[in-house]
C-alpha cells in the first residue's frame, strides 16, 4: 500500500517486472534500526506531509470498489484482473472487496477481507488522520500518541451463522463456542510471541551492553599493565 501510494504521488518509480523477479528479501530475526543520516529539516517536513496524505488517500480517496492496489500499475482496475465480482454470497474467501495485487504473482493478497473488514481498513485511516490533525500544533506528540494509542473503528460483530458458516457435525451453539475458544487461543499465542520478542530484544541489548563493558574492562587492564 505504501509503495503504491509513493509511486502514485511520484516519490518513487513504479516497480518493474525485473524487480518483481528478484528473490524476496527477509528481515533479520532482530532487525537493527538505522536512522536516516543527515535528514534535512525540509525533508523531515515532507515525510510528515506524505504520512498525512497517505492516511487521507486510503481513508477518503482510493476507490475500493473498482481499483486495485498495485506496485507496478497505478491505474490497475478490478475488471482487468477479473476481480470485479459481485457480493460473495458464500461469505467465505476469496473476497474481492479490497484488492491488492501480489507483486510476485497474480493473487489478491487481501482476499480474506470481506465488506465489513474493508470498511474497517478505510475507517482506520480516516480516524488516524483525524487524530493526527487534532494535535496539529504538536506533531511530535500527535504522531507518538497515534502510534501508542491508535484509534480503532467499531467492529461489526457477526455470528458464524450470520456469516454463512455452518457445520454438519456440531450444533450452532457448540460451533460458536469453539470459534470463541480458538480466538482466545490465538490472542494468547499472539501475546506470548510479542512477550518473547520483547524479551529477546532486551536480552540482545543486555548482551551488547555486557560485551561493551567487557571490552572496556579488558582495555583498562591492558592499559594498566606495567611496561617492560
TrEMBL record:
Give me the segments passing through the membrane. none
Q: Does the record's keyword annotation contain Isomerase?
A: no
Q: A Pfam family in this protein?
A: PAP_assoc
Stretches assigned to the PAP-associated domain: 47-108
Q: Does the keyword Transcription apply?
A: no
Query: Where would one find coiled-coil regions in this protein?
Result: none
**GO MF assignments:** metal ion binding
* Alphabetical keyword list: Magnesium, Metal-binding
Q: Where is the signal peptide?
A: none
List, alphabetically, the InterPro entries matched.
PAP_assoc
The protein's name in its UniProt record: PAP-associated domain-containing protein
Instruction: Say which species the protein is native to.
Output: Strigomonas culicis
Amino acid at each position: 500500500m505504501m509503495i503504491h501510494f509513493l509511486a502514485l504521488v511520484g516519490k518513487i518509480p513504479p516497480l518493474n517486472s525485473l524487480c518483481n523477479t528478484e528473490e524476496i528479501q527477509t528481515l533479520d530475526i532482530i532487525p537493527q534500526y538505522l536512522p536516516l543520516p543527515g535528514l534535512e529539516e525540509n525533508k523531515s517536513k515532507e515525510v510528515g506531509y506524505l504520512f498525512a496524505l497517505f492516511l487521507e488517500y486510503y481513508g477518503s480517496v482510493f476507490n475500493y470498489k473498482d481499483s486495485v492496489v498495485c506496485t507496478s500499475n497505478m491505474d490497475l482496475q478490478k475488471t482487468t484482473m477479473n476481480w470485479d465480482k459481485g457480493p460473495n454470497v458464500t461469505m467465505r474467501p476469496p473476497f474481492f472487496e479490497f484488492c491488492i495485487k501480489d507483486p510476485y504473482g497474480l493473487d489478491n493478497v487481501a482476499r480474506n477481507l470481506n465488506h465489513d473488514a474493508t470498511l474497517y481498513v478505510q475507517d482506520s485511516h480516516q480516524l488516524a488522520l483525524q487524530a493526527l490533525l487534532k494535535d496539529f500544533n504538536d506533531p511530535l506528540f500527535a504522531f507518538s500518541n497515534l502510534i501508542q494509542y491508535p484509534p480503532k473503528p467499531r467492529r461489526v460483530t457477526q455470528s458464524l451463522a450470520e456469516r454463512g458458516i455452518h457445520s454438519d457435525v456440531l450444533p450452532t451453539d457448540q460451533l460458536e463456542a469453539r470459534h470463541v475458544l480458538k480466538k482466545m487461543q490465538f490472542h494468547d499465542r499472539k501475546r506470548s510471541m510479542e512477550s518473547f520478542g520483547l524479551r529477546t530484544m532486551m536480552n540482545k541489548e543486555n548482551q551488547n551492553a555486557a560485551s561493551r563493558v567487557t571490552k572496556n574492562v579488558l582495555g583498562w587492564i591492558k592499559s594498566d599493565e606495567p611496561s617492560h
